[in-house]
Design goal:
alpha/beta; Nucleotidyltransferase, domain 5; 16% strand; 7 helices; 201 residues
């Protein structure tokens, strides 16, 4: 019997007013386990501090965990809606991780965090399962969550240098009071999701 690779997929940035939605696919090779270490329990990235996420990112990278990231930007989010955009990014990340590791879809089992599917017909793909709170229940999904959060935060920090008025390095594009106030004061930039800020402009 051929042992399956496990792919965990999670997204970050679904509810943001600015910036892309980022989806990561993380690959566990057959028999791979994350052992106990000084970092404590691996959890959903939202429940880890920034420092803890960074340490987990380094640790997982040192272990050689393969991952692939995909972004879908505001212009596309506005055109096809955030749900379809996140699913599109999930499909792209999945395809990239297969290509990166020279794998066939027949060799993998895929788990996606709740609300994510592999493209529009994801529900019909037999080897892919969407799991509610998958980032809390499945290690590969939790790993994808950490990678996605770290990658997106770094990207938003870069955008903050280009668009310093909005405080992106602080809130990472989420709809904080500070961010909403900046949009009202300065107007939206091309990094903003127009469909998300219609009540602010």
């Amino acid at each position: 019997m051929i042992r399956k690779y496990v792919i965990g997929i999670d997204e970050v940035g679904r509810g943001c007013l600015a910036g892309p939605v980022v989806v990561v696919a993380a690959l566990f090779r057959p028999g791979f386990r994350i052992g106990s270490n000084e970092l404590g329990a691996l959890r959903d990235s939202k429940k880890l501090t920034k420092v803890a996420r960074g340490k987990w990112f380094e640790y997982l990278s040192e272990l050689g965990v393969s991952y692939a990231a995909a972004k879908v930007y505001p212009s596309v989010i506005d055109r096809i809606n955030i749900t379809q955009a996140a699913n599109l990014a999930a499909l792209r990340a999945f395809q990239k991780i297969l290509e990166k590791n020279n794998l066939s879809a027949k060799r993998v089992r895929v788990y996606l965090d709740g609300g994510l599917y592999l493209g529009r017909d994801g529900r019909k793909i037999k080897f892919a399962k969407t799991v509610v709170r998958g980032d809390e229940k499945i290690k590969a999904v939790a790993v994808a969550s950490v990678f996605a959060k770290v990658k997106r935060d770094k990207y938003m920090q870069k955008l903050a240098k280009k668009y310093p008025k909005y405080g992106l390095d602080i809130h990472k594009g989420y709809g904080t009071k500070m961010h909403r106030g900046a949009i009202r004061k300065y107007g939206p930039a091309e990094i903003h999701r127009r469909s998300f800020i219609s009540n602010l402009v």
